[in-house]
Amino acid sequence: MIRFSFVTIAVATVLAFAVASCSSADGVREAGVIDVAGAVAQPEELRVSDLGKRIRYVPLETTDSSLVSSTWVLTAADGAFLVSNLGFRSDEVPCLAFDTAGRFISSVGHLGQDPEAYMSSFVVLAPDSRSAYFQSTGMQHYSFDGKYLGSAPRGGMIGGPGVTVAVDTMFITVNDSYVGMNGPRCFSIYSQGLNSTAVDTTDIIPYPEDADNPEIGAVQNLWSHKGVMQNGFAWYHELQKGKVFFYLEGGVSQVWRVGDEVHHRRIFNDTIYAVTPASADAVYLFDCGDNRVDQSAIDRHEEIDSDALFVAELFENRDMIVFGASRGWLRDDDHETFVGVYDKRTGRTRAAAGRRGFVDDLSGFLPFYPAAVTPDGHFVGVITMEDIGRYREENPEAELPSEIAGLDDDANPVLVIVGD
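and the corresponding structure tokens:
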């Protein structure tokens, strides 16, 4: 059963509303159509200047107290960048805060079981994007300079990156998971007030009547796949037992803020919704043509077709939607990747080969791939020291951007920020 509910800080009110299945254009006639199939059929060169007028490079300061793990996730906040280290080394700080120039501000909180500790370093930004919540038995609240601001109770797990936002007095969380991998699939969007543990639920998109809920038990095969964007944070897990397939994701935004709106898209689905306590309106539709991934087939745990076209990740601001798409499943050696952009003002969709990315026509450096969006709509990418080393080997006479020319080989990653 797919469920959707809101509970505010003051009133727990269940608001029912009907929303059609979003695997086709039915019920979304007013939504903007993003022509993915047409764009990837005629790829062209995309440029950094298509996304903004300015590009700047922000090396994250490297000190003994600010080391970025080999596995990490970035959260772009108002006036800061937060790095969630996901490694298992005891000397790694779980969350680091840097200012917009890359200077290290502070470590933010700590793992543990004491009254101020949290159990996960995944960040949920406060409604003003100027402080952060972390999950514990409650939601631990910290400033970016590491000051503990208190806690708030909560009525459900907030999950990994990209599945929770805080808006006004609510946490809005997408929970898309399997109970023990052998129970009915549970997909819900719910929220609870910052000072409430109550969660009421209303079904709005019925779980398909013909869907199977097999007990997968011991898994025969397990594959992990990165998303399309280079150095991005999206990944997919694929589990198989016989003809039964389960698809799980991490780091793929399923709920996010765009200005004053909250948008939601279920993975493998074609539709982006604008959600409020009173409505869930389809606002954009990814048209992947005849070879789109059939959501009902996913719900029946069928294998994704080798020629399927689907959007693997997306990044949205007020003016455009940037997406990474794949033609063919990520496990297949011959799958093709694409980066694309949809201009909300013109309604035009364009795409380029994934290996080319957005050509840097502003500074003449490496191709750009978005990995995050700042609250004011700037796109943020990531460059590693390994990327810079390869570029130097391939272009020994080329001049590096001044901000990164003197970096040591073991320096922290560099953020690439594109905007007006």
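(Above: one complete record from the training split.) Residues 1-29, 177-190, 201-207 have pLDDT under 50 and may be disordered.
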